[in-house]
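call fold(seq) -> tokens
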Amino acid sequence: MQKIKHTFFENKRLAAIGIEPISLADLYQKLPAVPERLEFYMLILVTKGQGQHFIDFIDYDLRQGNLLFVRPGQVQEWKDYRNVQAEVVLIDPTALPNDELVKSKGVDLLALQDWQNSSLLTELLQQDILQSISRLKRDFEDFDGSELDISLLRNELLNLLLRVARWQQKVRVADKVTSRSRKTYQLFIDLLEQEYRTEHSLRYYAEKLGYAQSTLSRACIQVEGSSAKVVIDRRVALEAKRMLAHSSASVAEVGYWLGFSEATNFVKFFRRIVGVTPQQFREQRSEQRH
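ret:
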């Protein structure tokens, strides 16, 4: 079956560092005409014009000062970018853990899993981020592959991300969640990302992590406002929607790939979560595209 296009960080010259700052104008000719599942982080800061970007079934209207953030695993579509000018930073996930500063504190402080996909920055923050990206691009021009340059660029990237993280913390609702609940929630989400295709039971995740089912649900309610079981079902349904909308797999193939032994069980599950059958959802998406 035809699957969703996977896009990886691919730049031989920059493979050792895993970071690439680039203007949208330079990236434009490489943009795919089909939906793609990213395997890296992407930051897009709109500096001029208006357009649209599509991430996991949500259309984001873009305008000057808008910061778009796409994380690995999300499916995006490049839509109306003809009148948009923007600065883009591509970040391979392996670029972050290799830095000692990030190992010690940065990853937890960044909380990338909590970032909004789209946010409108203040004018002052726009200037700060643009300056950080400009400095990053300037130092990339002199990049010689040395450990010194790699360390410099990664620390500049970390500085940029921490600045955005501080803003993200201000705009997100979940910042009042206790650290213990957030840690429990993140352990659950990390395991869910690994196992959602075959494991749909809350009991499985609770036993695997050594928590009571109620503890996982409390953590999820605090962070997402939904029980752990609802979080599991939504994650499975999201992947089903991605495959139905962006691949040629049959309904039965999608259900089987997601761990449903019978197509009828998958159809019932999908209708309960999404509100329509898989086939109806696929038809609706097809009509919206045309």
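Strands lie at 5-7, 19-23, 36-38, 41-48, 51-55, 58-62, 66-70, 75-78, 85-91, 118-120.
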